[in-house]
Amino acid sequence: MGDSRGVLETGVKEEVTGGEHAVDDRWVFYRDVSRSHPVLVKGSGIYLWDKDGNRYIDGCSGALVTNIGQGLPGIAEALAEQARTLGFAHQSRFTTPWLLELCRKVATLAPGDLNRVYLVSGGSEATETAMKMARQYFLERDGVSQKHKVIGRWHAFHGNTLGALSMSGTVGRRRKYAPMLVDFPHINPPYCYRCPYNRTYPECGIKCAYELDTVIKTESADYIAAFIAEPIGGAATGAIVPPPEYWRIIREICDRYDILLIVDEVMTGFGRTGRHFAIEHWGVVPDLMTVAKGMGAGYFPIGAVIARERIWEAFLRGSGKFVHGHTYGANPLACRVGCAVLDYYTEHDLAKNSADIGQYLLDGLLTVLHSHPNVGDVRGKGLMIGIELVQDRDTKMPFPQGGGQAAERFTRIALEEGVVVYPGGGAVDGVLGDHFLVGPPLIITKEQADELIDRLYRAFSRFQ
Length: 464
Ligand SMILES: Cc1ncc(COP(=O)(O)O)c(C=O)c1O
Fold this sequence. Notes:
This protein is of the alpha/beta class. It folds into two domains: 167 residues, Alpha-Beta Complex (Aspartate Aminotransferase, domain 1); 273 residues, Aspartate Aminotransferase, domain 2. It is built from 14 helices and 15 strands. Strands 4-10-9-8-7-5-6 form a seven-stranded mixed sheet, with helices on both faces. Strand 14 and strand 15 form a beta hairpin. It is globular, with a radius of gyration of 22 Å. The two termini are 31 Å apart. The structure holds pyridoxal-5'-phosphate (PLP).
């Protein structure tokens, strides 16, 4: 059974209250049932405190969620006020002012004519919804259609529900449920550090993008509704950034075969990579875009699918009904918090801070870690940085244990040094490969970035 007593010493201790309630974890079914969990009692800005007063820098914003930092009184007041006035309304019968306002804000930020916002309560709901919206779009548009498959990428993560997992390519998360998954095709990711074709950019000819063309031909475009990918690889690959031509080629292939392009911005959306949406780095407009994490920034669960006008129009001219929905989608509490979060995000120009401090952090990490024998690659954009751990930096040989165990070990050491990172594994071949994400709240300052670099450096000194 898990043991939730705080056992860590981060070196920075402060007085906190709230831990007195945390006495017994025997009723809890944790995700990792055998691990001990420090008991967190407070979050403020980029910092977290456990019940023993240990302070941590949240170097990964939970799971790249708490983009505007924790403990903002304005967001708490908005949530409380909404709970007092109208806590719930079901979207099948009513709309609310905050729903309208939130959709306007999201559509205004989104590129091109991504103007129609369908609200849900999280990332998996968003990608699951996009998958069904793509399928129904072709039925609405053409009356009869065989288009139903979604092509994904290996080592991508789009969520843990069965549709989202079917589109995902992260082997470790899929394997136990493989018999229950839909048989969707996958292509290789644009993973230049370990090119799946053993080529080097730019001589590679961006084979990883043209593989989409090959798979569509093999499967027949008649059966393919969409292609889904993260604009910059997230949890499963550790911030892999595709080459400059990649997204333009993908967009052209989707257009050529009448296939919708779904870009999953659940992790990258709302400033994480230094632009409102990561796909803007490539100047491409997808047909559907999924968002979640940074939209509620940890204050409330919320997500969305943002659709281009022509998708919405097909539903309007067709049956008029999207046969899908979840009870808590577009609820007033989520919408109100979403509005307050996006106001804070735009008023403080956090996309710009993410670009500026992200570059500063990346440069700083490269400087202090470049000669560490176990640091294979440091990559990313804005405040989404991935560090790939290897057994030998010259040969790029991964750690032999697999399953992200080395990344987990590093994460534990980093916690002891007072910084939280987001570990992952399996990107080399589904089993081998260790990396972690550094993605602090977008409000982080230069001084705090220095502190983060210093703590990671100390963790790496012990990792050897
Ligand atoms: C790109 C991406 N899509 C979807 C999801 C699933 O989101 P959720 O955990 O909110 O269901 C995640 C979660 O990490 C993600 O990173």
